[in-house]
Design brief:
The complex is a heterodimer of chains A (325) and B (301).
Chain A: E1 2-6, E2 12-14, H1 34-43, E3 52-56, E4 61-64, E5 68-76, E6 79-81, E7 84-86, E8 91-94, E9 99-102, E10 107-115, E11 149-150, E12 176-183, H2 192-200, E13 203-209, E14 213-217, E15 240-245, E16 250-252, E17 260-262, E18 269-272, E19 274-278, H3 280-286, E20 294-299, H4 302-321
Parallel strand pairs in A: 12-20
Antiparallel strand pairs in A: 1-4, 1-11, 2-3, 3-10, 4-9, 5-8, 5-10, 6-7, 6-9, 12-19, 13-14, 13-20, 14-17, 15-18, 16-17, 16-19
Chain B: E1 13-17, E2 21-25, H1 32-47, E3 53-58, E4 62-67, H2 74-91, E5 96-107, H3 110-117, H4 130-137, H5 143-151, E6 155-160, E7 167-171, E8 195-199, E9 202-205, E10 216-220, E11 246-251, H6 254-266, E12 273-278, H7 280-285, H8 287-299
Helix pairs in contact in B: 1-2
The chains are: A alpha+beta (325), B alpha+beta (301).
Chain lengths: 325, 301
């Protein structure tokens, strides 16, 4: 078991997510940076899909009641075992009574702690992911607080040699992020000029950013919409539409001013127009966009999105295959 | 008239939404006709060929499909869905089995009043409550007239989503009788569980405490979402209302509200509901008598 001494800013249990319930208004949840989460499981020898802890901005302080192997992946956050610095992106052995703690985040937003055996909270609708907005999954449907006791799964006998990721496979998280998206959905609500404005601007990530969505701003005025009479049921603002579904990664722009990229815990529907959705290969990077970092949106075709998806999958399997001892 | 579609020349849009979702827009304007076609398509797609499809989410006049691009390509999926659209449109809307449900609402209740008074700086007219403002902008003389309009004809659940358990409904009356509710200028950060509200042309019941931007008129007496599945209406699904359900919002007094709350607390409450076959052809031909008939079916002994 793991005892939570300090919870960190927003630490939740996450896994691959909970697909198949979108129509009931249930977003899929799951790790914001799936690649880092998956590499963590591979490093500690877990089966894919084992639940890990996702840390946001600041890490927790944890005490292990039994020996385990852990790995810290994702955003660059100094990691300490009993106060002594340990390396990220490799297995760390901890003994009963050891404390794991973290220093200040140096890049990215979120880090992951994979624990041998996985975090063994009950699965809800097929997943252990926390969906805090709805209050289900994870540890009691919420982020961790001091005093929580996390159960862990059965631990295999650990080999003495420790796995680590090759340096060339360690991702770098920058404060300047390009997010590729496929234009579609209600993009016709913007004029040609409005689309150019959206693609041309450099957007700044606001502190209004969490697992539901990431809001961005710019110093320039509203994007230009097409004129014309509003359809019945859409509402009077040019950014309103007849309420429709919001896919994960959808870019909604209320009043044409501040884009919000909806993330893995977002509401699943609403009445603001969406200009397109960020491609699956870049959703991990979205989850690592730092506050005050900058974002540019790059339109791509569905074919380019498919190629990027394959490239991401290839990187991940190559990185896992090359884990060295 | 927003029951039948107004723009019959509209070509359905099939667009990508990233590389894992596909978006299908049947119309830009709300119409019950387009909504019923979409509900029918969702039923057929789920019943027939779901290979590569993870989720299908019908909305008011559009739907969203989440798919696995490693199993099915965007183009192939569009071809499959267009085929279903063609056959639904060719065959016309068939009668379908659904339910008509009594939804008791305490209008002008003290709980939503307390919350809405906290947010008067976020609305168009801070001198009025939400229900007074809606009565005003919809041209009703009194709040009672507005309540009468909302409760005199049933609504159909046209869409789920946002958060689990919520539904959008659409009153089964002609365009000129639809209530129009401007949303808050800035959303509230608080909405009581079971608040009855209208946003745009859509009456909703909030399933659980949340933020929200729809003006609040009252509070439903019984839950529509029960994650613990304690009440018998929720045995199969924590969300009670399904798209296609016909909801008759009924104005109740405080004594009845309290009685229902007691039944809910005791675990004995169940909704008054009747199975019906909704006949789109008959309904579109003469909506008023058909709605009258649905209410008779619901309230006969």
């Amino acid at each position: 078991m793991i005892e939570v001494i300090e919870p960190g800013f927003a630490t939740t249990v996450q896994d691959e997510g909970r697909p198949g319930h979108y129509r009931q208004g249930m977003a899929p949840s799951g790790a914001m940076d799936l690649a880092s989460y998956r590499l963590g499981n591979a490093l500690v020898g877990n089966d894919p899909g084992a639940a890990s802890l996702e840390l946001t901005f600041t890490g927790p302080r944890l005490r292990f009641t039994q020996a385990a192997t852990v790995a810290v992946t994702g955003g660059d956050m100094p990691t300490f075992v009993n106060g002594r610095e340990a390396k990220a992106w490799m297995e760390i052995d901890v003994s009963a009574g050891d404390e794991l703690s973290f220093g200040f985040l140096r890049s990215g937003v979120r880090a992951y702690i994979a624990v041998s055996g996985g975090i063994d909270v009950p699965a809800v609708l097929g997943s252990r992911s926390t969906h805090a907005l709805v209050g289900i999954g994870g540890f009691e449907g919420r982020k961790l607080t001091a005093g929580d006791i996390l159960p862990t799964g059965t631990v295999r006998n650990q080999a003495s040699s420790l796995r680590k990721l090759l340096p060339e496979h360690i991702p770098a998280f920058s404060g300047k992020v390009e997010l590729r998206y496929v234009p579609g959905l209600f993009s016709y609500r913007l004029s040609t000029r409005g689309i150019d404005q959206f693609n041309g601007r450099t957007w700044t990530v606001t502190p209004n950013a969490d697992r539901t969505g990431i809001r961005m701003t710019s110093t320039e005025g509203p994007l230009e919409f097409v004129d014309g009479e509003r359809p019945f049921g859409a509402g009077s603002d040019p950014s309103n539409v007849v309420d429709a579904g919001y896919p994960v990664g959808a870019i909604q722009i209320p009043s044409g001013t501040e884009p919000i990229v909806l993330s893995r815990d977002a509401v699943t529907a609403g009445g603001y127009f969406t200009v397109g959705a960020v491609i699956s290969a870049d959703l991990d990077r979205l989850g690592q966009c730092p506050t005050n970092g900058t974002v540019r949106f790059v339109p791509v075709s569905i074919e380019q999105a498919a190629a990027a998806r394959q490239a991401s999958a290839k990187y991940l399997s190559a990185a896992i295959a090359a884990l060295s001892h | 008239m927003a029951l039948k579609r107004t723009n019959t020349g509209f070509n359905t849009r099939y667009t990508p939404a990233g590389d894992e979702f596909l978006f299908v827009e049947f119309d830009e304007a709300m119409s019950l006709e387009a909504n019923l076609e979409i509900q029918e398509i969702a039923v057929r797609v789920l019943g027939e060929d779901t290979e590569g499809i993870i989720d299908i989410c019908p909305a008011n006049v559009s739907y969203l499909v989440r798919y696995d691009p490693d199993v099915v390509t965007f183009d192939a999926l569009v071809q499959r869905l267009k085929k279903v659209e063609r056959s639904v449109k060719a065959e016309g809307l068939e009668p379908f089995k659904t339910r008509v449900i009594d939804v008791p609402v305490l209008f002008n209740d003290p709980w939503t009043y307390e919350v809405l008074m906290k947010f008067r700086d976020r609305v168009q007219d801070p001198s009025k409550t939400d229900i007074e403002y809606l009565a005003d902008v919809n041209g009703f003389g009194t709040v009672e007239d507005l309540i009468e309009a909302v409760t005199s004809a049933p609504s159909m659940a046209t869409m789920t989503g946002f958060v689990p358990g919520i539904l959008w409904s659409f009153q089964l009356v002609a365009f000129e009788r639809q209530i129009q509710a401007p949303k808050y200028l800035r959303p509230r950060t608080e909405t009581p569980e079971r608040a009855f509200a209208v946003g745009g042309a859509y009456p909703v019941v909030y399933p659980s405490p949340s933020a929200g931007g729809y003006p609040m008129l009252g509070r439903a007496a019984a839950p529509i979402y029960d994650p613990a599945q304690r009440l018998k209406d929720f045995a199969d699904d924590p969300a009670f209302v399904r798209t296609g359900d016909v909801l008759n919002f009924r104005s109740i007094d405080r004594a009845e509200y309290d009685r229902i709350q007691d039944e809910v607390a005791a675990g004995t409450f169940s909704y008054l509901q009747r199975p019906i076959t909704f006949e789109p052809g008959v309904f579109f031909e003469s909506p008023e008598p058909y709605c009258h008939h649905l209410r008779e079916v619901l309230y006969r002994d």
